[in-house]
Amino acid sequence: MSQNLTFKAPIGLPQGAAVRTVSQISGIPLNFEALTWKQINHPSFKENNPLSQLTVLQINEQTTLTEFNAILRYFARLAQSKGLYGDDAFEQAQVDSLLDYTLIEIQKMSFALVGPIYGTVPFIQNTYEAAKKDLFKLLQIIEDQLTFKTYLCSNRMTIGDISLFTSVFALYQYIITEEIRKQLPNVTRWFQNIAVQPVFQQNFGKYYPVSQEWQNQGQKLVSGLESSEPTQQQDKQQSGKQQKQQSQQQDGEKKLGRKELKKAQKAAEKAQKKAAESSNPAQKQEKPEKIQENKEKQEKTQENQEQSSSSTFNYFDFKTEITNTKDKKAVIENLLSNFDSENYSLWFVLYDKYEGEGEVLYMTSNLKDSFLQRMDSFRKESYGVLGVYGEEKNYDIQGVWMWKGTQIPEQTKNVPSFEYYNWTKLDLSKPEDKQKVFDCWCNLEENKSVFNGKVLRDVSLFK
C-alpha cells in the first residue's frame, strides 16, 4: 500500500488503542501522533473534523476519517484477506450490525458507568444502578450468541469483536466482578480470549480481573452538598441532575479524552516509536532485548523483596499503632529516627491534573477514591495518606506514602491511572522532606488541617 497513513488520538483513549490494534493486525503501517488538548481546541482542528472527534485518520492532506467505526471499516476493507470484515456478504452484514449495536447500546451504558469513576460526570445512584441493569440485559444478548462461538460474526475475529471489546474493557476493569462474570461465562471467555493476545496487551494494557466493584466514595459528598435542606428539595435537585445527564453524556467522550490527555506531550515520542516498531517486521529481532528487559525487571522486583524481607522493622505493628494512636507525632518521630532506608522508602505524591479537573470537590474525591480502589492489592506492602486539598476550582490530590523497597514497585505501574500521579522520593536528610511526613500524616482534620500550603478537604488512609 502506497498511502502514508497518520492516526491522531489522545494517549490512553480506548478507541485509539483499538485503531492501532487493527492497523497491526491488518499489517498496514500507521504513523501515530498524540493529540494534545491545545491542538483539539485550536480552530484548525475542526477544518476537516467539524464534530471534533478524538480519533482522526489522516489519509492525505485533503482527506481524513474521524468516526471510530468508519476508521475500523476502512482498515478492514484495505486488508480483506485478514477477514476483519467477515468472509462473505452475510458476515459483513453481521459485523455492521454488531458495530451499530455497540455504538448505540453498549457504549452509552459503558460511559454511564465509567464516567463517574473517571470523575467526568456526577455520580447519581439511581442512574448508575439503572445503567448496570440495562448493561446486563444487553450483554445477556451477546452471551446467548456466544454459546457455540469463539467470535461473534465469523470464525475469525472481526472489527465487530474489536469495537465491542473496546467498549467493555473498562467495564471488566472496574465493574464486572467475579459474581457477574459467572453469570456471563461466554462473554467472559470471549473477552479474556481477546485480552490475552499480545497485540491487545500492547495497546490496551494487561487485563486484571476486578475482585470488588468500584464504589462511589464521593456519594456522601454529592448528597452532602444539600444536607442542610429538606429531603424533598434534595429530590428535586437530583431530578434536575438526571435531566442534565443526557447532555453530559453527549459530550462525555470529549471530557473523557481530557482525562487521557495528561501524558500526551511527555509520551508522544515513546508512543510513536512503539507504534513504528510494532508495524515494522524488521523490528522482530529486538525480542531478545525485550526478554532481557523483562528479566531485569523481575530481578529488580526480587531484589526489593529480598531487601525488605531482611528488615527487622515490623510493618504491621507500625500501621496499627499510627492508625489508632492520638499521638501520631511520637510514632512518626520514632519511625524516622530509626528509618530503615535500605529496605523502605517514603514518597510524596501529587496528581497531575489536567484542564477541567480539580474544580469540583466530589469529582476530585472520586478520582482519588477510584485510584485507591485500584491499588487495593498493594495495601499489605504500603501505608499512605492521600487527600484532596485546596479550594473550589483549585483542588489537588496529594499525600505521602511509605512502602517496602527503595524504588517504585513494578506491580503498581500496571495499575490504571498510576502514571497520572507524580511520585517524588523523600530524602530524610533534608528537613523540608522530613517535615512533609509530619505535616501530611499528623494533620488529618478535614476543612482545617493544612499540608503543602492547602487546606485538607477529604482524606483517605491507605493501610
CATH superfamily of the largest domain: Translation elongation factor EF1B, gamma chain, conserved domain
Number of helices: 18
Order of helices and strands: EHEHEEHHHHHHHHHHHHHHEHEEEHEE
Please bin the fraction of helical residues.
40-55%
CATH topology of the largest domain: Alpha-Beta Plaits
Low-confidence stretches: 217-272, 278-291, 297-301, 303-308
Average of per-residue pLDDT values: 78
**Quaternary organisation:** single chain
Strand arrangement within the widest β-sheet reads 8-5-7-6-10-9
Radius of gyration from the alpha-carbon trace, in angstroms = 24 Å
Major beta sheet, specifics? 6 strands, antiparallel
Number of strands: 10
Total number of domains? 3
Distance between the termini: 55 Å
Structural class: alpha+beta
Descriptive account of the structure:
This protein is α+β, with helices and mostly antiparallel strands. It has three domains: 1-79, Glutaredoxin, CATH 3.40.30; 83-214, Glutathione S-transferase Yfyf (Class Pi), Chain A, domain 2 (Up-down Bundle), CATH 1.20.1050.10; 315-462, Alpha-Beta Plaits (2-Layer Sandwich). The protein contains 18 helices and ten strands. It has a six-stranded antiparallel beta sheet with strand order 8-5-7-6-10-9, sandwiched between helices. The chain has a four-stranded mixed beta sheet with strand order 2-1-3-4. Helix 1 runs parallel beside helix 3 and helix 4 (89-118) packs antiparallel against helix 5. The longest helix is centred in the N-terminal third of the chain and has 30 residues, at 89-118. The chain is elongated and about 75 Å long. It starts with 5 loop residues before the first strand and ends with a strand. Residues 217-272, 278-291, 297-301 and 303-308 have low confidence and may be disordered. Residues 219-312 are annotated as: Disordered. InterPro entries: EF-GSTs, EF1B_G_C, EF1B_G_C_sf, Glutathione-S-Trfase_C-like, Glutathione-S-Trfase_C_sf, Glutathione_S-Trfase_N, GST_C, Thioredoxin-like_sf. One of its GO terms (cellular component) is cytoplasm. Residues 232-250 have a biased composition (Low complexity). It holds the Pfam family EF1G.
